[in-house]
Design goal:
CATH class: Mainly Alpha
Number of domains: 1
CATH superfamily: Winged helix-like DNA-binding domain superfamily/Winged helix DNA-binding domain
Strand content: 5-15%
Number of strands: 3
Structural class: mainly alpha
Mean pLDDT: 82
Shape: globular
Largest sheet: 3 strands, antiparallel
Number of helices: 9
Order of helices and strands: HHHEHHEEHHHH
Radius of gyration: 19 Å
CATH topology: Arc Repressor Mutant, subunit A
Helix content: over 70%
């Protein structure tokens, strides 16, 4: 596409990109503030949340799936292990491989985190009709599918995410009450 064609094009798609970015950035920033009293960093709760869905992953696979360097993830796991949130165990087949598991303390923390997340998300969607939320969600999932297709990804991550969205009864009940 040449420059002249871009000038004549409406800029809604550019604004959409900025809006998606800004909503994501503001959500992260406000979520960090909401979780500050819990005494955990964004990176730490992000790792804990991922492990809670895939407990016992090898540390190297966890680094790959989170798209984080192995050294950076190792430092995060060290801090989480020191805090009593995770434990590393040698793989029963290959003792060089370390698998990462949540502790009971982390399980209790994740329950608290989920409760805080439900309250936070209810505030975000306040005043938005349920049908609008479903349309927005479906639109974003389609955009994600298109981006994954562009990257050559098979879309397994999208299927897991869609299943996760469908299986969130607490949030859905709260949104129905609000909508």
């Amino acid at each position: 596409m040449d420059w002249l064609n871009m000038i004549d094009r409406p800029d809604w798609d550019l604004r959409l990109g900025y809006l998606i970015h800004d909503v994501s950035r503001l959500r992260r920033m406000m979520f960090d503030r909401a979780l500050a009293p819990l005494g955990i960093t964004r990176s730490q709760w992000w790792v804990l949340a991922f492990i809670s869905r895939k407990d016992g992953l090898p540390q190297t696979q966890l680094a790959n799936e989170l798209d984080v360097g192995k050294v950076a993830l190792g430092a995060l796991i060290d801090r989480l292990e020191t805090g009593g949130f995770v434990t590393r165990k040698a793989d029963p087949v290959d003792r060089r491989v370390k698998r990462v598991f949540l502790t009971r303390q982390a399980g209790r923390f994740m329950e608290q985190l989920r409760a805080e997340t439900d309250v936070f998300n209810a505030k975000i969607v306040e005043g938005i009709d349920r049908r609008e939320l479903e349309t927005t969600s479906n639109t974003l999932l389609t955009m994600k599918r298109n981006l994954l297709a562009m990257s050559g990804d098979t879309g397994a991550e999208l299927s897991e995410e869609r299943d996760e969205l469908v299986n969130q009864p607490k949030t859905v009940r709260k949104m129905r009450k609000a909508g």
